[in-house]
Design goal:
Length: 96
């Protein structure tokens, strides 16, 4: 439920943080749709894992997997922000 509460803010995130200006509606719709599609495809796998090893272990694996994904996205975002900063500094130096 917490994820669906953040959906109205996806276009703002895509526009402000990722710099997407063209096709913002399509990108926000695609990002929301893909996440729900992946959740639906992974649910049987996580359910069988919980049936086989127990809910506690499955929850731990899901939490670890989610943390790795979030940290990976954070790292990519940080690198993109640094690259944008370097490009802006180069443009200022060149007078453009």
């Amino acid at each position: 439920m917490a994820y669906t509460l953040s959906v109205p803010f996806f276009p703002l995130f895509l526009q402000d943080n990722l710099g997407i200006q063209c096709g913002l509606e399509a990108w926000s719709g695609l990002s929301v749709s893909i996440s729900f599609l992946i959740s639906g495809l992974c649910a049987p796998f996580w359910g069988s894992l919980a049936d086989k090893w127990g809910c506690f272990i499955a929850s731990g694996i899901i939490t670890l997997f989610s943390a790795v994904i979030v940290l990976g996205v954070k790292e990519v975002h940080a690198r993109n922000a640094a690259n944008r900063s370097n490009i802006l500094q180069d443009l200022k130096k060149s007078g453009g």
